[in-house]
Amino acid sequence: NAGVTQTPKFQVLKTGQSMTLQCAQDMNHNSMYWYRQDPGMGLRLIYYSASEGTTDKGEVPNGYNVSRLNKREFSLRLESAAPSQTSVYFCASSETGASAPLHFGNGTRLTVT
Amino acid sequence: SQKIEQNSEALNIQEGKTATLTCNYTNYSPAYLQWYRQDPGRGPVFLLLIRENEKEKRKERLKVTFDTTLKQSLFHITASQPADSATYLCALGSGGYNKLIFGAGTRLAVHP
């Protein structure tokens, strides 16, 4: 099984450009998440989707939008990239319910110049 | 606000020794705590879960304790090996949805 697959692995954007980060999971999980990871800081939740058809804001949602396309796919969109969005972005999925372990992809390293 | 603290300095130990990593938290009452391992350039990988009513959990060479009075979790790796070298993250959660709060992680280096 591939688990959680993220594309692209690396991306460089200029300030103001837009892009969509793609995420797909093949574990039939209901819940999916987007986190960002910055040096010296813990993973911070951007958005999550508890189940297909629902999305909710996490801790740091400003500047981002998400789409839960179907049960497998959960995309993250930056409409107008800013240097503060330079980070490593991780997608994760889990079974339904509190305390279920998260399964992470290997991340997208994004640089905004 | 909720705060999770893990040692920011790397922990260096000799192969065969026990590594002990600390996770402290404030302004939070988690129902459970999870530990993850992260290798460079990779996503975190789940290791262990411990709930608030459990004092200790073991899995092979790994042991986790959870003290809700001290607001602290300890993560032990016994008989450590160079392959255990990685960053270890603790994450706290509560409520109906799996909205975890992560610590920044502690890097462990096991030397031969």
Helix and strand element order of chain B: EEEEEEEEEEE
Strand content of chain A: over 45%
Looking at the chains present, what oligomeric state does this protein adopt? heterodimer
Secondary-structure element pattern of chain A, one letter each: EEEEEEEEEEE
Provide an overview of this structure.
The complex is a heterodimer of chains A (113) and B (112). Chain A has strands at 4-7, 10-13, 19-25, 31-37, 44-49, 56-57, 64-68, 74-78, 87-94, 103-104, 108-112. The termini of chain A are far apart. The mean pLDDT of chain A is 95. Helices cover 0% and strands 49% of the residues of chain A. The model of chain B has no long low-confidence stretch (mean pLDDT 94). Chain B is 0% helix and 55% strand. Chain B starts with a strand and ends with a strand. In chain B, strands 2, 4, 5, 9, 10 and 11 form a 6-stranded mixed sheet that branches. A 5-stranded antiparallel sheet of chain B has the order 1-3-8-7-6, with no helix packed on it. With 112 residues, chain B is mainly beta. The interface between A and B is medium-sized, with 27 and 29 residues.
